[in-house]
Amino acid sequence: MSKQLYEIGEQPPLGEVPEKMHAWLVRADRFGKPTEAFQKEVVNTPSIADDEVLVYVMAAGINYNNVWAAMGIPVNVIGARNKNGEPEDFHIGGSDASGIVYKVGKDVTNVKVGDEVVMHCGTFDRNCSWVKKGGDPMYSPSFKIWGYETNYGSFAQFTRVQAQQCMPRPKHMNWEESAAYTLVAATAWRMLHGWGSSSIKKGDVALIWGGAGGLGSMAIQIAKAVGATSVAMVSGEDKFDYCMKLGAKGCINRNEFDHWGMLPHWKDNAGYAKWLKGVRAFGSKIWEVLGEKRAPNVVFEHPGETTIPSSIFVCETGGMVVVCAGTTGYNATVDLRYLWMRQKRLQGSHFANTEQSNQMNQLALSGQLDPCMSRAFTYDELPIAHQLMADNKHPHGNMSVLIGATQFGLGVSGKPAVTVVHPTLPKGDVHTTPHPYPMSEPLPSIEEAEALTIADDGTKVRDLMHHGIISCTPDDTIGAVAKIMVDKEIHAVVVMEQGKATGVVSQTDMVLARQGRTPDQARSMKASEIMTPGCATCDADMLLSDAVSLMTGRRMHRLVVTEKDKPVGVISMTDVVRKIIG
Q1: Rounded distance, CA 370 to CA 177, Å?
Q2: Over the stretch 509-540, which tens digit does the pLDDT of each residue have?
Q3: Among 158, 436, 467, 526, whose CB has the most other CB atoms within 10 angstroms?
Q4: Strand pairing partners for 377?
C-alpha cells in the first residue's frame, strides 16, 4: 500500500484500499441542525464480510433519512446500533450512491473489482431463516436500510455494502445523476409492481400524488413504461409541463380543491355532504384530464392523513391505493363502506427487495428512467444540502453530492438504448408543502423491551369529575333533552335505561340532528335516535392522562365515570382545560 490516506478527489489505484478514509460524520453530542451535526473527519476504512463489497464512492444521493439521523430524531441511530453491539460512536449516512468496486468478499459472484455500480439501500441477513426459506427479505426481522439503520453509508470515500445491493450503473448518466435515483425509484417500483393482481399493468390509470417530487417523478415514468396512463397531482400549474414531459397524461393542481383532510363524522350530514361535493368534483377533474369517465386503478399515495379519504373514494372498484409514507400525518380516516362494498385495497409498501430493485434498474439502464436530478452539490456542501431539506427549501426532484468525483458531469461513457426527454423544473422551484414527518420509531413487538417511563402528575379522574349523573330516557324527545342541557348549563346528557347508561346525547349530536331538518322535526325526535350508543366510560380511579388518551383516541369530548360499574359522574375535556389553566 503506497498511502495510508488519500485526499478527497485523489482516487487510489484500482483495488488499493487505504487504511483510513475521509467521511462526513454525525456524532450524538452534536445532534441538531445538519450544518452543525455533519462534520468532516478521518476514520478507519471499514472491513467487509464474505458477502460484502467495498465501493469507492463517486457520488451520493441526498434523502430525508439522514436529515433525521443528523437531528437524532425520532431515533438515535448511533445509540440503537450500540445497543445491538456495534461499537462505533458515530454515524456515516448515505443511502444512495454510484461508485467503483474496490474489494469483494470471498462469497461474492455478481460483481468484481473495477465494476461501476449503483447501490440500492435494502440490507438483510442472508442467514435469516425467513430469507433462507425463500421469503421476501422485506419481511425479514433482519431487514435494515443501509446508510440509515446501518453504518458506513455513502457519505465517505469508501462504503461497505452487501453484494446483493450492487447493480450495474447506467453508463449514459454521469456520476451524480446515477447516484440520485435508486432509493426513490425502487420504492416506487415496488409500490406499483409489487402486489400481484393489483399491480399496475398496460391500460391502467394511475393517480400519482406529488408528481414533481422524487417519488412521483419516478412513478410517472414507471407507469409510462408499462403502458399505463398517469394523472399527476401537483401544487401548482408551473409543474404541469415537467410532469407531462415525464409521461403524465395530464395534471391536477391540488390547490383548486379545499376538501382535503380527515373525514367529517358520518353522522355529520352537512359536513359529510360538503366533503362529498368536494371529492366528487375532484373525481370529475380526473375524468376531465383523462378525456373519459375512468377511475384510477392504482392510486400512488404518500401524503397520507389529508388525502387518503379522497384517494380511496376516487379509486376504481377492485383497485388499489398503495401508500409508503404519511407526509401530512399518520392518522388517516377511511369510509369503510367504499372500501368493502367496492372491494378496494389499501396497501402499505416500504422500499423494495433485491429482485424489484434490479427490475427497476433495467429501466434506468435502457434509458427509460430519467433520474430527475434537480440539484447536485460539492463534497463540502453536503451539510448544506441536508439543511435545505430540513428547512424545506430544496427543489423538487432528486439531489446528490460529489464524493470521489472531482467535478460535475464526469462518468458518461455510453448512450442509452432509448432516449427520453430530460425535463427541467421551473426556475426558483421550492417546496410549498410541509416536509415529511420523521420515520416512526421501530414498531413495538411482543418481545420484551425496556419499560417506558410516562410522565404523569398522578391526578385521577375522581379529582376533577362532576359528581352525579344528569340523565334522560331513550324515549325523551330532543326538545326535552335540550331543555335539560340549557337549564343545567351542561354539554351532554347520559341516556339511562333500567339503571344502566346506554348512551350519551351531546350538544354536537343535537346540532347534527338539526342538519337537514326543520326545528319542529328535530325537537320531536327521540334521544335514542341521535344518541351515541355504547356509553364510553372510565373508572373514577383511572389516571386523568389515561382518560384524556381515551377521549382523544375516540374523538370524544367526555366520558361517563363509574364506580363498581355504576355511573357516578362525568369527566369532560372542559374539566381538563380548567385544570391546565388553573
Answers
A1: 9
A2: 889 888 888 999 999 999 999 988 877 889 99
A3: 158
A4: 401
**536-540-542-547 Cα dihedral, nearest 10 degrees:** 40
Beta-bridge partner residues of 570: 466, 560
List residues bridging with 501 in a β-sheet. 496
Phi (first) and psi of residue 120, to 5 degrees: -90, 165
The pTM of the whole model exceeds 0.70: yes
Total residue count of the chain as it appears in this document: 582
pLDDT over 70 at 70, yes or no: yes
pLDDT at residue 452 is higher than 80: no
Numbers of helices and strands, H then E, in the chain: 19, 25
Question: What residues form DSSP beta bridges with 506?
Answer: 492
Contact predicate 164/117, CB 8 Å: no
Backbone angles phi, psi at 367, to 5 degrees: 95, 5
Contact 305, 332 (CB under 8 A): yes
Q: Which amino acid is at 45?
A: T
Residue 81 has pLDDT above 90, yes or no: yes
* SS3 label, residue 136: coil
Helix, strand, coil content of the chain in percent (nearest 5): 30, 20, 45
Poorest-pLDDT segment among 59-73, 99-113, 378-392, 548-562: 548-562
- Residue 242 cell numbers, joined: 415537467
Please classify residue 48 by burial: count the beta carbons closer than 10 Å to its beta carbon, then call 0-12 exposed, 13-18 middle and 19+ buried.
buried
In the chain, what is the straight-line distance between the N-terminal and C-terminal CA atoms, in Å?
Answer: 72
More confident residue, 26 or 444: 26
Statement: residue 554 has pLDDT above 90 = no
Written in H, E and C, the secondary structure of 461-519 is HHHCCEECCCEECCCCEHHHHHHHHHHHCCCEEEEEECCEEEEEEEHHHHHHHHCCCCH
Cα–Cα distance between 388 and 381 in angstroms, integer? 11
